[in-house]
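Data availability (excerpt). The following record was deposited with the supplementary files.
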Amino acid sequence: MTLIFQWVIDEMIIFRHAKNEDFDFYYNLKCEESAIYWGGFEKAPDRDNFHNHFKKIVAGNSDERQLLFAIDSNMLVGFLQLTRNIDSEYEISYGVSESFRGHGYGYAILEYAKKIIVQMDRDVTLIGYVRYDNIASIKCFQHNGFYKCDEFDERFFPVDGEKKKMYLWKWSEK
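Predicted structure:
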């Protein structure tokens, strides 16, 4: 299914569910230095293991887990993953390739996530965990009407050699 989203500045971003041929883009994005760092990983994912994981997601795209790609001018620019945690809550994960950052794609991806959730059920809450010092993601969440909760997880970041706070952000149409 291909979904078209009118972006804020009259650009057309197309969102579509992941296909097997998207693997290289997705893998390369996950191997970018900033994706490794902000994701809390020590190194890039193993290609074969990641490919197996990706194939399972593509084969199982459903209301429980969706992986979509953002496309602008026929180029993949980022991804959106929504995972149902409980009946009324979806956790969001997203990323924009380093070569496309700073152009509002993160904002557009989060805006689109809200539209998907509202179409599914107005009583659903979107959540995301953002590291306390990830200013770009914090701004994206703030500008999309998410609010920061007092709740946080502490996760170990191998590159930093210490635990870092990951604050919970929420959005709901309610």
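Summary of structural features: Confidence is low (pLDDT under 50) at residues 1-10.
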